[in-house]
Amino acid sequence: MNRRKKIYEKLKKKDKKANEKLNKNNKPKYISKAEREKQAQSAPDNNQSED
User: What CA–CA distance (Å, rounded) separates 29 from 34?
Assistant: First the structure.
């Protein structure tokens, strides 16, 4: 690789990281099917104890 290409690659990489920090992903964290089932089973138990 020539010197110019190396420099541009470094600059592009730096810009890409900066953009990632600015544009955070707002998707909810992935929860596996098994975890969702556990949460669904424990949720009714919690509601009954509050009443």
Answer: 15
42-50, long-range: CB < 8 A, 24+ apart: none
Query: Buried b vs exposed e over 9-39: b needs ≥16 C-beta within 10 Å?
Result: eeeeeeeeeeeeeeeeeeeeeeeeeeeeeee
* Predicted model pTM: 0.44
Cα radius of gyration rounded to whole Å, the chain: 23
Q: What is the pLDDT of residues 6-46, one digit of tens each?
A: 999 999 999 999 998 888 878 888 999 999 999 999 887 76
